[in-house]
Design brief:
Shape: globular
Distance between the termini: 17 Å
CATH superfamily: q2cbj1_9rhob like domain
CATH topology: Jelly Rolls
Number of helices: 8
Number of strands: 11
Order of helices and strands: HEHHEHHHEEHEEHEEEEE
CATH class: Mainly Beta
Radius of gyration: 17 Å
Strand content: 15-25%
């Protein structure tokens, strides 16, 4: 399902593009079951000194994870997802042939308090040698809506620089754009239905709101790079031995 020139023009102009219905309900249900099983085992063994990194602080009634890292390495189901021909074909239209997953994440965003993600640029986190060589495929496992914390984008912000980010002292992992930079950039919501994929450029500003609804907003983010791109000056540590060649 190749993208049209109009689709690519939207991506180049806004920094993001949603492709609806790439994965069916059977696929998303199977992925949810798999990551929930992994999450339960991970949480049971999670050391106390790592809980702030992984546990969602917005949910007070129970202990739930906010994210897991590198599911493409730990879960065969996510490796299969990353290799889906239709998905890979779309990724290659954005960044060229010969792609790999360099890093990936599961976002749980639980109901009734799942925390927000402040506005940031992926390319600040990753520090790639080629700013145009990274694209994120954000795969919605549930409907991502205004009520449960869908993504918001600063449309066109990918044309600007990668800005220095800041983080609260108690949350060094939560790197975010400074308020004075973000104040100049309107943010637009981008709801995605279950099975859809939101592709976004590594430079574009994006964020998500808290989930105050009664419904989950689970998603998998696959961060693809092309054959010439690597994380040269990352802001956080990434294990490049986990890089998964796809095409």
């Amino acid at each position: 399902m190749p993208l049209s020139e109009g689709d690519l023009a939207v991506y180049r102009h806004t920094g993001h593009l949603t492709v609806a219905g790439l994965f069916d309900r059977g696929t998303t249900d199977a992925l949810i079951a798999d990551i929930e099983q992994w999450g339960e085992a991970f949480l049971a063994d999670l050391p106390a000194d790592q809980r702030a990194w992984y546990v969602d602080g917005g949910v007070r009634a129970r202990t739930v994870l906010r994210k897991l890292d590198n599911p493409h390495h730990h879960r065969a189901a996510v490796r299969d997802l990353a290799r889906t021909p239709a998905l890979v074909g779309l990724v290659e239209q954005f960044i060229g042939p010969g792609v790999s997953v360099y890093f990936s994440q599961v976002f749980f965003k639980p109901p009734e308090g799942g925390g927000p993600k402040p506005a940031h640029q992926d390319n600040f986190y990753f520090g790639p040698n080629d700013l145009e060589g990274v694209v994120t495929a954000w795969i919605a496992l549930d409907d991502a809506t205004l009520e449960n914390g869908c993504l918001y984008f600063g449309e066109g912000s990918q044309h600007g620089p990668v800005y220095p980010h800041v983080a609260p002292p108690e949350e060094p992992y939560n790197l975010q754009l400074p308020p004075e930079i973000l104040a100049r950039q309107p943010m637009s919501p981008a709801p995605v239905r279950r099975g859809g994929v939101s592709f976004h450029h590594g430079n574009v500003f994006h964020q998500s709101a808290p989930n105050l609804s009664t419904r989950w907003r689970r998603a998998i983010a696959l961060h693809y790079v092309n054959a010439h791109t690597f994380f040269e000056q990352p802001a956080l540590p990434y294990d490049d031995t986990l890089k998964l060649r796809i095409s």
